[in-house]
Amino acid sequence: MSSISILLCSLIYSILTIGNYFFKKRVNSVENKIFSIILIVNLVGILLDISSVTMAHTGIHNFMFDAVNKAYIFYLLAWISLFSFYSLITAFDDNYLKKIEKVFIGIFIISCIIIAILPLYSKVENGSFYTYGPCATFLYGISTLFVISIIISLLCNVRKIKSKKYLPILTYIFFGTAATLIQASNPQILIITAMETFITIFMYFTIENPDMKMIEQLNIAKDSAEKANSAKTDFLSNMSHEIRTPLNAIVGFSQALKEENLPATAQEEVNDILMSANSLLEIVNGILDISKIEANKLEIVNVEYSSKKLMKDIISLITARIGDKPLEFKTYIDESIPPVLHGDHVRIKQIIVNLLTNAVKYTKEGSVDFKVSTVIHDNICRMIISVEDTGIGIKQEDIGKLFTKFERFELEKNVTTEGTGLGLAITKSLVELMGGKIVVQSVYGKGSKFTVAIDQVIIPKTLEEAGLDTDIEDVVEPFNAAGSKILVVDDNRINLKVAARLLKDYQINADLVLSGQECIDKVLNGEKYDLILMDDMMPKMTGTQALQNLKNIIGFDMPVIALTANAITGMKEKYIASGFDDYLAKPIDRNKLHAILKRYVKKSDEEVIDDQAEPLEETVNNRNPKFLRAQGVDLDHGLELLGDMETYDMTLEEFIEESKTRLPKIEEYRLATDMANYAILVHAMKSDCKYLGFMTLADLSYQHEMASKENNIAFVNEHYDELMNEVGKVLTIVKKYFGK
Fold it and tell me: In three state form, how does the secondary structure of 447-491 look?
């Protein structure tokens, strides 16, 4: 009866394990499926063994007794087969398992047939019961083969298998072999079933079966985080576009004013405007970069570039930033740097400029040393870049936090120093993305030294062979391109005006249109242009769609440049992949515009004859600004953006003309619940109102823009009359101002 006691204990443990396993959610894996079958098979085997032993001791020796004994043999075969297959799952990949799965099934079926045919005998002797005969002998033999296959799989993949995975396998090899030998030599000692139950329960604690409730909670949290991250990315992208649109006017007109014969005080103020605009752009770019880094979407774009031009550009930029500050800027650039390298020169420039800008920012007097040396091995050039200053230095306890986002030290001492605390965090991420290293050395109160090592691939070509510009001189004056024609496409009239003003210095005949369809019509009517500057985010037809339509025109071969406020890193590559020849971000940088024009527009050999540019519209300057201020118009804000009353009046007249077509379209899109195009038009109206100082209408337009982007039709309809009433008030003020 001791055998019955062992089997009853095995039965209790088996039932408890099954209850605990099947009443919890499980990972749907092959491993779990096999283990589930093993659990059920083991329970059936225990019940068969208990039945067989009970029938033997009670003297029931009939057909049912023989059937139970034979069924128990089938159980033993099934358990060892399943356990062997489970062992192979932990040792080999899925492709290998698919190959041997059919072999296992074939062996199992053949073994079942043989067991069914071979005779099995039972015997009760001295109070003990056991089975024997050819059937039992065959089972011992086939079990031995399965054990050998387990041992071989374990030895072949011992390094790949997790330690807890092969513990049940090792346990079975040891206890299973011992139990088999004991029962083979002493059939009356029935321990096989108990041993297999022990191994089955042991497996329960080693399978990969995490808490499904926790997994569900993690998945919910993950989905929420991904949605929040996506919303943040969309917001930052929209913010970039929103900020860059007015900055385009600020920077464009400021650059144009620099060329005018202004008093010294005015020139200084214009320079301050440009410096502030560039600082704002750096903040926007930094926030966008850190967002992409967090989302693992920041990409390294490797191209061939001129190493000397890169270094010259950096030195020129930092020299300008130092300005009148009493600093000595020392530079050393290793002459052995290969002329053409392959890497992401834009990001390398960003890394170096960030380090040098920080050095200049936190060094009141003394020097800033910029040094680039190289170590060349085979076709790799390791650039070792160091930036050393005599500035305020960093405390040792703060160095570990130096590359943390938004982290700034001793704000009470540096309250007048601009910065967001993103520069070094971005720098470290960029260095690591390129497989480089950055090291900081600092003595508090005496200065700091940053050292960066980045590997670049050497391209064994000259600048000419690589197709790179050999002219590394800075842009000084616009060249004369009289006779050239450029088509500028933008749905914002002020952006058109900025582009026209910048092109004026090149004596270029600028043709201005407000939509992609107008651009297509111009080309279909036979107009020829040296270059097309194309905005992307336009109503009805985006710039990308307009470009595809242009390329379908037979014989079209004009270069088209993407001119857009969508300036997130990687957009240049995206636009070029879409078919654009090049990319120009808003606000338009004069030097980058110069490079584009130099590449695509022919220079004129003629001297500049007419220094007058044709205005967009005839302007009138006899209006009274006091009337606008009295009506609540923020005229001062408008003049800050547009420069003078002449430009303001011209923009105001364009606003009236634009409203004649814009307002009916807004109504049409609202009634058709076309929220995508509705959002584009109210967005354009908001931008114009901000330029002109109609702040209430700008705020209402913004609310409608946000609601329509979220497809909140109810909000749009509920507040539409409020929006149109404010439009009416503004138009009435403007008409009275013009005396209409």
Answer: EEEEEEEEEEEECCCCCCCCCCCCCCCCCCCCCCCCCCEEEEECC
The residues pairing with 380 across neighbouring beta strands, listed in sequence order, are: 377, 457
Residue bearing the bigger pLDDT, 600 or 565 = 600
The DSSP secondary structure of 54-101, one letter per residue, reads: HHHHTT--SHHHHHHHHHHHHHHHHHHHHHHHHHHHHHS-HHHHHHHH
CA–CA distance, 578 with 128 (Å, rounded to integer)? 84
CA angle in degrees (0–180, nearest 5) for 505-508-510: 110
Under a CB-based contact definition with an 8 Å cutoff, are residues 387 and 369 in contact? yes
The residue-averaged pLDDT of 722-738 equals 88
**Rg, the chain, Cα only:** 40
pLDDT tens digit sequence for 358-384: 888 888 889 999 999 999 988 999 999
Section 409-430 average pLDDT: 58
CA distance 238 to 236: 5
CA distance to 497, 513, 530, 531, 612, per residue, from 481 (Å): 19, 21, 10, 12, 14
Q: Which residues pair with 557 in a beta bridge?
A: none
Report the relative pairing of strands 509-513 and 485-489 from DSSP bridges.
parallel
**pLDDT averaged over every residue in the chain:** 78
**Taking Cα atoms as reference points, which of 200, 93, 91, 204 lies closest to residue 152?**
91
Phi, psi of 382 (to 5 degrees): -90, 115
Q: Using CA atoms, how far apart are residues 686 and 700, in angstroms rounded to an integer?
A: 8
Across 74-83, 91-100, 592-601, least confident range: 91-100
Encoded amino acid at 458, one letter: I
CA distance 514 to 680: 13
Cβ atoms 693, 640 nearer than 8 A: no
* DSSP element (H, E) containing 511: strand 509-513
Can you read off the two tokens belonging to residue 702?
Answer: 């913004």
The gap from C-alpha 723 to its chain's centroid, in whole angstroms, comes to 37
Identity (one letter) of the amino acid at 179?
Answer: A
Structure tokens that stand for 290 in this block:
């850190």
Across 390-446, where does the E strand assignment appear?
Answer: 437-443
Q: How far apart are CA 499 and CA 510, in angstroms?
A: 8
Rounded Cα distance, 390 and 326, in Å: 12
Whole-angstrom distance, CA of residue 577 vs CA of residue 299: 15
- State mean pLDDT over 437-460: 91
Q: Which residues pair with 283 in a beta bridge?
A: none
Beta strands 366-377 and 380-389 are: antiparallel
The answer to whether 489 and 532 are in contact (CB under 8 A) is yes
